Amino acid sequence: MRLDKYLKVSRIIKRRTVANDAASGQRVSVNGRVVKPAHQVKPGDIIEIAFGERRLKVEVLETPEHAPKENAAALYRVLDEE
Q1: Residue 68 CB partners (closer than 8 Å, separation 6+)
Q2: Which of 9, 42, 56, 58 is 20 to 30 Å apart from 33, CA to CA?
Q3: What is the residue range of 47's domain?
Q4: Are 43 and 61 in contact (CB under 8 A)?
Q5: Which CATH number fits the domain that encloses residue 22?
Q6: Domain count across the chain
Q7: pLDDT value of residue 31
Q8: What is the DSSP letter of 26?
Q9: What pLDDT is attached to residue 20?
């Protein structure tokens, strides 16, 4: 699944356009590499996102095409939050 879509489906970032802008602005890395919005993510990948001064590091657990809001938090596991 594309990185920008995963960030939206998992509700880490609320809108896909915002997720696309974050990845295009080099604020998102997967497994230690800065990536573009079209990067394919899979279970086991580690995503790091910079939100201004805040950083979020999560591990991808699942990559479904659609997920209800109640199940969105089960798609990833927070590893570190600064």
Answers
A1: none
A2: 9
A3: 3-81
A4: yes
A5: 3.10.290.10
A6: 1
A7: 95
A8: T
A9: 94
